[in-house]
UniProtKB/TrEMBL annotation:
Organism phylogeny: Bacteria, Pseudomonadati, Bacteroidota, Flavobacteriia, Flavobacteriales
Span of domain GFO/IDH/MocA-like oxidoreductase: 156-216
UniProt GO molecular function: nucleotide binding
Domain spans labelled Gfo/Idh/MocA-like oxidoreductase N-terminal: 3-118
UniProt-listed InterPro entries: Gfo/Idh/MocA-like_OxRdtase_N, Gfo/Idh/MocA_Oxidoreductases, GFO_IDH_MocA-like_dom, NAD(P)-bd_dom_sf
Pfam families, per database record: GFO_IDH_MocA, GFO_IDH_MocA_C3
Signal peptide (UniProt feature, chain positions): none
Gene3D superfamilies, A to Z: Dihydrodipicolinate Reductase, domain 2, NAD(P)-binding Rossmann-like Domain
Protein name in UniProt: Oxidoreductase
Amino acid sequence: MLKAGVLGAGHLGKIHLRLLKQSDKYELVGFYDADTANGKKVEAEFGYKFFDSIDDLINAVDMVDIVTPTLSHHDCALKAIAKGKHIFIEKPITNTVEEAEEIRSILAANHVKGQVGHVERFNPAFIAVKNDIHSPMFIETHRLAEFNPRGTDVPVVLDLMIHDIDIILSVVKSKVKHISASGVAVISDTPDIANARIEFENGCVANLTASRISLKNMRKTRFFQKDAYISVDFLEKKCEVVKMKDAPEQPGDFDMVLQNAEGVKKQIYFDNPSIPSNNAILDELESFADAINNNTKPVVTLHDGTEALRVATQIINCFNTKV
């Protein structure tokens, strides 16, 4: 079992602590939190060992799970890598692309592994259909959330939209050609509502909308590709695959057939993949243990996290250049 330690015992950090404790692939050694009072409170309430020194915790483990505020990701990662520890780092990977690039470079030089916590990659609805997604040409995402003061210290792009950016980059096998975006700060100092359009060199276009002041929660993505429409509801963990194929010469009474102006007939059929229940955060943490133990590539690499941050930063820069 890999010895694991958590940096940060806030809302998400406590979830990671609980899951690492119950995992068969890790031995939870303990955690560090810069807020000593909070650290001692979490230790008293849950029984996890609190380290009052970040260096002592890093020295005691094989893998460091970084769940601190984004501004400290870079420093925490460098401390862990310098001591030869594997790092799991929550999204966004760092505060700037330059910091992310530095972590990637040092990680490679020290021959340790890193994974970024883009948890939607492990959403069972996405897993159920990702092998059906081939060269999508239009993608539309809506990620809406009711207001929550937690997370409003960063733009909604880094808080919410970055999940969808990572998913899109994972399925579109092409370089980004152009980005345009607009955002509005309603209740925070940074945009609470944002819309972005990402154009890829292969012609694919993605339209992303994110809001953290919505009246309802929504996390839906739709993929449009040749002969197929795929819908993923990340919140409800549901998916739908609608495909078209050449219609049979003698369609059945219940077959759905469309005919275009040229007389070509296509049959519409539905594929509803089975969606097993899972805990996506536990799965991502345990997938990282597998990558370490088997010396394989992590599911969400530091490169993936860096590219998602790069696109997110470009979107935010579009806001800043508008008068």
